Amino acid sequence: MGLNSLSHENFPATRGWWEGRIFYRIDVRAFSDSDADGVGDLEGVRDRLGYLELIGIDAIWLTGVVATPVGRPGHGRDVDPLVGTLDSLEALLTEAHTAGIRVTLDLAVDGTEITRPENRDELAESVRFWSSRGVDGFRVATVPGITGPIDESTHRALRLIRPLLERDGSVLLGGLVDGWHTDLGDLVELDLGVDMRFSIARFDAAEIQRIIRTVLEDAGNNAGLPVWTLSTWDYPRPTTRFGGGVNGLARARAMTLVQFALPGVVGVDNGTELGLPESEKPDRTSNHPARGPMPWEGTHPPFGFSAAPGNWWPTPPSWAASTVEAQLEDPLSTLSLHRNAMELRRRHEIAPHAAVRWYGAPRGCLAFRCDDGGLTCALNTSTSTVPIPPGTVVLCSGPLDGERLPPNTAVWLT
């Protein structure tokens, strides 16, 4: 398919560049290691920009780059030496922008310090520092617990940061669990909200539909857009979350088509496009997801991530069939499914604020269409094969049964 012709355009210097875009979250330390020390780094990300451009990514969201929390004197304007230097970040920004890819950063804020006027000035200086170097936006959270959802201190930080970004078109992201509201009021400061309710939904059509309706209603009452993602920093990848094995992967693929058919913004966690499960945990008492490093090529761990073994959860040898190399040219792979979904999403121009029309569907199924988008998405979470809705099939998450949609499968139709 003609991916390159639809990949990117020169982005305008106006607010709203993020609308309808596809964001790719990169855990820098686990993505690609350029210097064989066992830790992913910014040079490694720069080396892989061609891959991101090829599959159709519009923006990358880098985690683990800024070394110290903003809001403290002398802090918040440094790159973690484990992942690189300011020079390596600036080189990445330059090449990403040349490729038409925007770059956003995690920004940790010391919520206990920003109540002081002098530290609010430090916060402002840090935001200006990164913006002046070409950073296109920020995901803001407070420490401790930066991976968690927005709390009151985060909301205070957002209120301080928002005016600093009004003129330069930078995007402001936040993680949501209970909607676009805190005790300080609606989160009107956010451009994008990574809504984790969708990330933890069970593979159940009624629950998925309820969550989508709720998220769209919440976002509609505010100025921001929802970011639909199937995996976040605190929750397992969808293949594992939906049961693991063949069924877990089939359900993850089906939910990918639901995700990419929705209005707003799509978020992809690095490795999710490969259908990866979580790594095996040596310590079974930990509840945190075990993320192995990104598998790029070869037949043995760590699959081209690094020339050094690194201090990671053990990477399963079975990932040899799921590397980028193994999937890139396979038209039936999970990576190809993501590429095709990205291309069709652009081709059909699903509007960021489009209304979603729901259609009648058999028990355990759902079907919807975005106004003016031209694509109908149908999902079967039941245990029975059901008729496919009327229309021409343009993409399916798995094999169809003639004119019928099998369990654990989704389809797009025009």
UniProtKB/TrEMBL annotation:
<dbReference type="InterPro" id="IPR006047">
    <property type="entry name" value="GH13_cat_dom"/>
</dbReference>
<dbReference type="InterPro" id="IPR017853">
    <property type="entry name" value="GH"/>
</dbReference>
<dbReference type="GO" id="GO:0009313">
    <property type="term" value="P:oligosaccharide catabolic process"/>
</dbReference>
<feature type="region of interest" description="Disordered">
    <location>
        <begin position="271"/>
        <end position="291"/>
    </location>
</feature>
<feature type="domain" description="Glycosyl hydrolase family 13 catalytic">
    <location>
        <begin position="25"/>
        <end position="327"/>
    </location>
</feature>
<protein>
    <submittedName>
        <fullName>Alpha-glucosidase</fullName>
    </submittedName>
</protein>
<dbReference type="GO" id="GO:0004556">
    <property type="term" value="F:alpha-amylase activity"/>
</dbReference>
<dbReference type="Pfam" id="PF00128">
    <property type="entry name" value="Alpha-amylase"/>
</dbReference>
